[in-house]
Amino acid sequence: MTKNVILQLTFILLSLASCKPSSTNKPTLDDYKIGEKWTWKWESTTNGKVGGTGEDIRQIVDYNGTLGLWNGSDTLKMADILNKKKSDTPYRSWPLKVGKKWKYESKWTNESGEKGITSQDAEVISFEELNLPAGKFMAYKIKYVGYIQNYQVGGKGKVTDTFWYSPKLKQNIKHIQEGGGGFRYTSELINYTGAK
User: Fold this and answer.
1) Where are the domains of the chain?
2) Who contacts 153 (Cβ-Cβ below 8 Å, separation ≥6)?
3) pLDDT score of 196
4) Theoretical Cys-Cys bridge with 139: which of 11, 24, 58, 166, CB 3.0 to 4.6 Å?
5) Where are the beta strands (DSSP E) in the chain?
6) Left (φ > 0), alpha (ψ -120 to 50) or beta: where does 41 sit?
């Protein structure tokens, strides 16, 4: 090979390597701007039969002089969302990088007042391009495998959640949840509007 060809191949390889981040840190308050808006379409099915559909939105708004996240009905202070108390079993373990693994556990109370726990093993599977109605975005594919237990109902149900997190959009842009009894929930980003 000539020196020129070797230089061209080296440039191509370096260009490809630079497209894939070695890791991604948790977004900070400075990463969000007033006017940003995300819209997802979701659907739940059981054995292929549609149980529900809808849209979820989130928008960055002014909240008493600071940034807030509006979800269509409530507004939460972004600083409170981003600065939650550190957990030994977090939903997200930052920084994200392919191959990273951790344990996720969360105790919860649903809208009906029932209490339970979600316990899953999480792993960052890949960094890949997704083509969604909102556009093409690079995203980390993160798989969570484990169970959900409702203390009032009793028993444990197996559940697998797969999220695609976009560092550029600072959000999950796709989510698939599969559980027992043929249950499946899907959510994908259909629109993103940047800051005005």
Assistant:
1) 38-56+87-193
2) 114
3) 73
4) 166
5) 37-46, 49-63, 66-70, 75-77, 101-109, 115-132, 135-150, 156-166, 171-179, 183-193
6) beta
Q: What is the pTM of this model?
A: 0.87
Sign, Cα dihedral of 94, 95, 98, 100: negative
Q: Please enumerate in sequence order all residues whose Cβ is within 8 A of that of 75, keeping only pairs 6 or more positions apart, or say none.
A: 61, 63, 68, 69
Q: 30 φ, ψ to 5°?
A: -65, -15
Class of domain 38-56+87-193: mainly beta
H/E element, 97? none
Q: Quote the mean pLDDT of the chain.
A: 90
What is the distance between the terminal CA atoms of the chain, rounded to a whole angstrom? Answer: 51
Q: Which two tokens stand for residue 151?
A: 């203390």
Is 150 strand, coil or helix? strand
Q: Are 122 and 93 in contact (CB under 8 A)?
A: yes
Higher pLDDT: 25 or 16? It is: 25
Query: Which pLDDT band holds residue 60 (cuts at 50, 70, 90)?
Result: very high
- Interval 112-167: pLDDT, tens: 889 999 999 999 999 999 999 999 999 999 999 999 998 888 778 999 999 999 99
For CA atoms 78, 81, 85, 89, the dihedral sign is negative
